[in-house]
Amino acid sequence: MSDEIWALIFNNPLIQANVNIRNKLLNDFNFESVYNDILINFPQNDQNIFQNSVIEAFNVQERKIDPNVINDNLFKFIYKIDYFFTLNQDLLIERYTGKNPNYRYKLPHIPAGYPVNSKTLNYYDKHIKIDDDKSNIKPINHSNNKQKYYIKLHGSKNWFNTNDHLMILGKQKSKKISTSPLLNEYKTLFEAITKQKANILIIGYSFKDDHINELLINAIENKSNIYVVDIQSPKDFARSIGAFTNDTPFPRLFHNISLTTKIWYGLSGYFQVKEINDLVDKPYISKQLGRIFN
Q1: Whole-prediction pTM value?
Q2: Under a CB-based contact definition with an 8 Å cutoff, are residues 234 and 272 in contact?
């Protein structure tokens, strides 16, 4: 997905007209790294151009998926899971659940419109002002088994705080999260979940965020089961996250290896799919997941 976002940003006419940003992208295929550099070293006008180009790329990605054709059996399965944590900043889930009364996720501390319903769908096309006052961000009750939570750990493309978009991109994400009482509370909730024994299903994550990887290792050390869903073969996936090469021995000194290698050797299951609907359309996968997340 990140490669597609890079291409969408690069193809934006505003980017093509800006030589400095264009050249920066041509020398770095990690759009988040480019974003970070531009925020630090480029003038405000360039920052605005790139930020708007990123949001437009997200919009294009989101429009590619019609919420009306999402496999409802897939959502029935996902809805069994109490906490839906995401690093994505698009509005696909909001739009889908808003048209289906069977799903009522709650995003804690977000203004009116959540849980999503058909009357509030247009709400998501507008900027949502986030109250990022620490005194107003109360701890989330994660012992409420009846409530389904949708947690956007890195913010959302339509969220704004006092200063700017509330989206976490680029480097030093953990530091940026710490400046937002809302996102810091979301991280605290995720951390609390990883401190208890749980079944955690990870779909389409690149494992490039150390602050997330550290919490996943906490989960493994607390006897949680980590299951990964990806389109790559297990071998290619392990190599893509830097956890495995042909010369990698089984780690005897667990504390001396990389975060991703620790996660790789702590996995409880791996599911290779061609598309996300395979989770429910392929019986050999759906039966295994059904036993795990019943």
Answers
A1: 0.85
A2: yes
